[in-house]
């Protein structure tokens, strides 16, 4: 079942199936930050390579800002409070094709409701991920998730343009020099201290060790939930380390990423935003692994990046997503990271 073609409809090539009339696509990805950023090559290639393509995007309301300024998306729909209203609005659009990049029970319901549209679904490879997390048997293809997303468009003759990820935000969200300490205006190391789940995050004491070792200005990046941890980390050297956590919006934090010389990050949304902004990334991995196909993605751009893992741990990966705390209590996948070695990578990039 898992190895069958991703196309859910006729199996016929859709290339050249239309010439002059507008062709309406609905691309679905509900969450989260990183996953939505990773879909941007799909909407760009679809818009640029399929004649007369009109591209709509369906996501959760709280993530709609991630695609609000994307010039390759013609209209945004949101999964809000009323399911019936959303389905009614989607039916009114009379889509020709649905590109399902989330592929769960809710998207199945949407596809059934839009039964007049042909649909193509992303293969999540859940059984292979289970084999890796549960039995440590890796049968996953050595293919980035971006290319697997793009595979849903192969019937349209769409190919990867090699331009990497996109992240668009308005001029008003760009950081002014006055928003930063004077010592940080001309460059800094961006350190992303947050992540969706704790087993993806370095412990605070390890982050303090890293920031103490870096002899360059540091900006800590994260959301309001990371503010207190950022305060503790910054206490190592309040002049050198600027805690931006909770002070800026996501777009403003993205601009802080853009201004950085190099980004040190966990496996999290800002890692993918950094890649979209063509920044060198040193990614630090805990319970998840790059083998899932979600490392920093640059397309054909030659941007230096490093993926740092504690290898040869029998318990890793323990989940394809993460946990609030280490299931075994020792958290070796993060505790065993060598902060001096990570600092040496930072220094090499600078």
From TrEMBL:
Say which domain of life the source belongs to. Bacteria
Note the SUPFAM superfamilies from the entry.
UDP-Glycosyltransferase/glycogen phosphorylase
Q: Which Pfam families match?
A: Glyco_transf_9
Q: What keywords tag this UniProt record? A: Glycosyltransferase, Transferase
Give the InterPro entries listed for this entry.
Glyco_trans_9, LPS_LOS_Heptosyltrfase
Q: What is this protein called?
A: Glycosyltransferase family 9 protein
Q: Which organism is it from?
A: Sediminibacterium roseum
């Amino acid at each position: 079942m898992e190895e069958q073609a991703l196309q859910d409809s006729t199996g016929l090539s859709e290339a050249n199936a239309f010439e002059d009339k507008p062709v309406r696509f609905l691309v679905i990805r509900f969450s989260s930050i990183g996953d939505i950023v990773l879909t941007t090559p799909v909407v760009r290639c679809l818009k640029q390579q399929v004649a007369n393509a009109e591209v709509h995007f369906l996501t959760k309301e709280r993530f709609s800002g991630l695609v609000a300024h994307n010039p390759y998306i013609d209209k945004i729909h949101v999964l809000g409070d009323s399911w019936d209203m959303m389905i009614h609005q989607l039916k009114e659009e009379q889509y020709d094709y649905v590109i399902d990049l989330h592929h769960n029970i809710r998207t199945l319901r949407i596809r059934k409701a839009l039964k007049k549209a042909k649909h193509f679904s992303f293969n999540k490879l859940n059984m292979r991920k289970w084999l890796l997390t549960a039995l440590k048997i890796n049968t996953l293809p050595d293919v980035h998730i971006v290319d697997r997303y793009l595979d849903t468009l192969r019937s349209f003759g769409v190919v990867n343009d090699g331009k990497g990820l996109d992240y668009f935000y308005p001029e008003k969200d760009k950081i002014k020099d006055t928003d930063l300490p004077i010592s940080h205006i001309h460059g800094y190391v961006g350190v992303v201290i947050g992540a969706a789940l704790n087993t993806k995050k370095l412990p605070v004491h390890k982050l303090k060790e890293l920031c103490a070792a870096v002899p360059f200005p540091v900006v800590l990046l994260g959301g309001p939930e990371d503010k207190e941890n950022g305060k503790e980390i910054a206490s190592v050297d309040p002049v050198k380390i600027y805690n931006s956590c909770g002070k800026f919006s996501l777009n403003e934090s993205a601009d802080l990423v853009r201004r950085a010389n190099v980004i040190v990050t966990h496996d999290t949304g800002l890692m993918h935003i950094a890649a979209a902004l063509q920044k060198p990334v040193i990614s630090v991995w805990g319970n998840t692994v790059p083998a899932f196909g979600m490392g920093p993605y640059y397309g054909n751009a030659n941007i230096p990046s490093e993926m740092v893992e504690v290898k040869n741990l029998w318990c890793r990966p323990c989940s394809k997503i993460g946990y609030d705390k280490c299931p075994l209590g020792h958290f070796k996948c993060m505790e065993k990271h060598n902060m001096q070695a990570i600092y040496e990578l930072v220094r090499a990039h600078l």
